[in-house]
Write a structure and sequence with these properties.
The protein is an all-beta fold and 45 residues long. The protein is 0% helix and 31% strand. It has a three-stranded antiparallel β-sheet, with no helix packed on it. The radius of gyration is 11 Å and the shape is globular. GO terms for molecular function: cysteine-type peptidase activity. Keywords: Hydrolase, Protease, Thiol protease.
Length: 45
């Protein structure tokens, strides 16, 4: 189940989905930071 939350409500381990339609996902780690993989063949910004 996907439940939208505000940035202030994010907890470490939450998945963060991006773009519309959703085409990217990252993992929230804490302190406003997330980790994610770059697109195939391109380094992450």
């Amino acid at each position: 189940m996907v439940v939208p939350v505000s940035r202030a409500e994010l907890q470490p381990g939450d998945l963060v989905f991006s773009y519309s339609p959703i085409s990217h996902v990252g993992l929230y780690v804490s302190n406003g930071q997330m980790v994610h993989a770059s697109a195939s063949g391109r380094p992450a910004p």
